[in-house]
Amino acid sequence: LTGMAAEGAGSGGGGREADVAALRSKGFQNGDRVVLYDGVCNMCNGWVNYVLARDKKAQFKFAALQGDSGRSLLRMMGREEDDLSTLVLLESDQTVHIRSEAVLRVVSACGGVVGKCADVIRTVVPRGVRDWVYSEVVAPNRYRIFGTTTPDKCRRITPAIRARFLD
Predict the structure, then answer these.
(1) Does an H or E element contain 95, and which?
(2) Kind of pairing between the strands at 33-37 and 60-64
(3) Could you say which DSSP state residue 138 is in?
């Protein structure tokens, strides 16, 4: 965690060493690919369940944006720690992707027909259009359409799945 190349990120802040130590104590290692998601959003939890079922190589770890690890990672990326407006993907090289780019990269990495469709969408649909749909249509309506829940209520936690969550 030496530096992060983030889309739309500002400068990091104090407490970085404490954040790194806390993340390491929860199993985070340099090179991990981490998905930060809204842990109370039913749509977001459903999407995480989708990824868990299809990510056969266990390429991704997960952290709810509301959790200690999620907030620590957001701070380290220079993002507001209470920003729940977007899914965030931290790549193994510490590049950060947000909004549609994050979603499509994760789905693509899971492979299959849907992964190929994600690749086509990333190639054909301009990012500005994708991000507008994400930010103006999907994100502001997700609670109203899909509802909310308490974190971890939407999945059965086996030891193998538990190991993929930082909090």
Answers:
(1) strand 95-98
(2) parallel
(3) I
Residue 17 has pLDDT above 80, yes or no: no
Residue with tokens 């059965």, as numbered in its chain: 156
The pTM (predicted TM-score) of the whole model is 0.85
Q: Is the pLDDT of residue 139 over 90?
A: yes
CA 101 to centroid of chain Cα atoms: 11
DSSP letter for 45, please.
Answer: H
Structure confidence at residue 118 as a pLDDT band (50, 70, 90): very high
Q: Are 103 and 117 in contact (CB under 8 A)?
A: no
Give residue 150's pLDDT.
75
Helices 42-54 & 139-146 angle (0-180, nearest 10): 90
Distance CA 150, CA 160 (A): 21
In whole angstroms, give the CA distance from residue 116 to residue 119.
5
- Domain positions in the chain are 5-160
